[in-house]
Amino acid sequence: MTRPESALRYLLFRSFVNRLAAQVKRVRSPRYALAFLAGAAYLYYFVGRGLARGFTASSTASTGDSSAYVLAYEALLVLSAILTWVVGAAEPAIGFTRADIQMLFPAPVSRGAVVRYKLAQTQLAILFSVLVWSLLLGRVHGSQRLLRTAALWVLFTTLYLHRVGASFVKVSAAQRGLSGIRRNIVPIAIVIAALGATAWGLAHTWPAVREAAGDGRFDEVVRILRGAPAIAVVLWPFHALVSPVFAANAGAWARSIPWALLLLAGCYAWVIRSAVGFEEAAMLRADRLAAEQARRRLSRQGKLRAGRPVRALQLAGRPWPAIGITGGRQ
Amino acid sequence: MIEVSGLTKRYGEFVAVRSLSFAVAPGEVLGLVGPNGAGKTTTLRALAGIITPSAGAIQIGGHSLAREPERAKRLLAFIPDEPQLFEYLTVEEHLRFTARLYGADDAAPRIAELLGELELNDKRAALPGELSRGMKQKLAIACGLVHTPSALVLDEPLTGLDPAGIRKMKTTIAARARAGAAVLLSSHLLHLVEELCTRLLVIQKGEAVAIGTIAEIVAGRPQLAGQGLEDIFLALTGDGGTA
Question: Count of CB atoms within 10 A of residue B43's CB?
Fold first, then answer.
């Protein structure tokens, strides 16, 4: 008997091939060919030319002192992690389509397998982000480019998994109340402990931070904050994820990547374990998105209809003015 | 065999389905009827495993949908009223995919048979975007039948089909029941229900108001004797007199 997982791999592969074929076919039409050329020119203007010049400004990130970059990206990651937990409705961060819901949810396939399929499907978008960021972060040579690309993949995939895991916890808590919270007690406890440790660390360093900030010594503010043990512990996962991206050489990369991979594996295990009863929330989300899409379509049609006619059409007469005004549409 | 006992679905304060119990035996076609908003789709979605009941138990072929979901779902086919298909999978690939998903080995002859039976042969390489509403519905039906399920859950299965398609679908449903499948059919088309179903389950506001053959339902309500199914339905659901 074939395993459902092989069906999901088949779905992924065939959808990818057919989509590619459809897009190639579409580019053959002049309208899409023009749009494609415009897109390619845009990309070349903003990315290609920069690459040709060598990204002189941002190349310091890879060749010189990268601690400022590491810190900046760590701060961004902290902000993104906080937003993941605080902002957003209690619905799965995985975008299930109505076809997924109708074809996969009633099928004899485990939730874990469905989640793995959707994570694999997201890889295309993640790889595109990796490509863009590896271009934006500046030029590195030879094997180091590969190492940075791998580190970026680990970073983006872990962030995505974290977002999915957090959304599952929120869905579970919203649907099941106390029992949902009890079921996800470990991640919830980690988040609360992290917030508590940050508050504690800030309270203890506040006088020194205020003094340094008052003198305009912001590098000192950063040093004090990072020196506080409680804050350093909270920041460690973010540091572990960002460090391999800005590793100065292959040795530094090899020393830092295992920790990032460990975090990736941890997040993956968490997502698979916490994938409980998300079907209903996914269905409501897909219905909401479909309704919004339909509303937007109707609103666009309404706007088109509301436009002032170029010329009032007579009820009788030659057909040509009518064809001209409607553009031949029925 | 489909067995539902005490099925309840709440959305906050609102109770969509309340303590619904029924069974569909192998070879039987049970018609699920009720006015709009009665809880039919909620019941069918719960049976298909798309939504989780707030209370109650569902068994498919003796397997609990809650405790052994994969075993229970392997026996089931859910055919919805509005077909949602994968945008970049062709007609034939949809069938191959569904056959693999349900572990139906050597499905090639069955796929060929279904493509012919539902007149999809010419469209086997077409993507859903190139299909009419009726063709999409036929494909959804074919996907539901490719693994020869022993329990069929159909939500308005004739929507979008042409007269020839409707006749074929009716024949298919009857044939599946004769082959031993338990069929639960929800439809507003009372003539279809009367023609195909061996028993009826009438629900309103999430609760069962009548279950049994038409004769059994009428036997308990002498005022309905001699009336057509439409009048019986309207009387039971309070839209056309007293039940």
Answer: 29
Max intra-chain CA distance, chain B: 56
**Size (chain B), residues:** 243
Taking each helix axis from N to C end, the angle separating A229-242 and A67-86, rounded to the nearest 10 degrees, works out to: 100
Choose, out of B100, B106, B137, B139, the residue to mutate when testing the contact with A (most A CBs < 10 Å). B100
pTM, rounded to two decimals: 0.80
Task: Give the number of other CB atoms < 10 A from CB of residue A190.
Answer: 12
Q: Exposure string (b/e) for A44-78, b if CB count within 10 Å is 16 or more?
A: eeeeeebeeeebeeeeebbeeebeebbbebbeebb
Cα–Cα distance for residue pair A201/A246, rounded to 1 Å? 27
Looking at this predicted complex, what is its ipTM? 0.88
- CB-based contact B127:B157 (threshold 8 Å): no
pLDDT for position A328: 54
Across the A:B interface, residue pairs with CB atoms under 8 Å apart total 100
B49 and A106 in contact by Cβ < 8 A? yes
Nearest-angstrom CA–CA distance, A178 and A181: 5
Question: Taking CA atoms, what residue in A is nearest to B69?
Answer: A108
Phi and psi, residue A318, nearest 5°: -70, 150
B70 contacts in A (CB within 8 Å)?
108-110
Residue B56 structure tokens = 């109650």
Q: What is the CA radius of gyration of chain B?
A: 18
Angle, to 10 degrees, between the axis of helix A218-227 and the axis of helix A229-242?
A: 100
Smallest CA–CA distance, residue B12 to chain A, in Å, is 10
Say which of B74, B85, B127 has its CB closest to residue A99: B85
The answer to whether the CB of B151 falls within 8 A of the CB of B49 is: no
CA B153/CA A167 separation, integer angstroms? 31
User: Is the Cβ pair B78, A106 closer than 8 Å?
Assistant: yes
Give the C-alpha separation, A117 to A280, whole Å: 18
Rounded CA-CA distance A196/A319 in Å is 75
Cβ(B23)–Cβ(B2) below 8 Å: yes
pLDDT band for A313, please (50, 70, 90 cuts): low
Chain B residues inside the 8 Å CB shell of A7: 97-98, 100-101
Best probe of the A interface among B10, B11, B71, B84, by most A CBs < 10 A, is B84
> Hey, what amino acid is at B187?
S
pLDDT, tens digit (0-9, with 9 covering 90-100), for B190-221 = 888 888 899 999 999 889 998 988 888 888 78
pLDDT band at A318 (very low <50, low <70, confident <90, very high): low
Q: Do the chains contact at B88 and A19, CB–CB below 8 Å?
A: yes
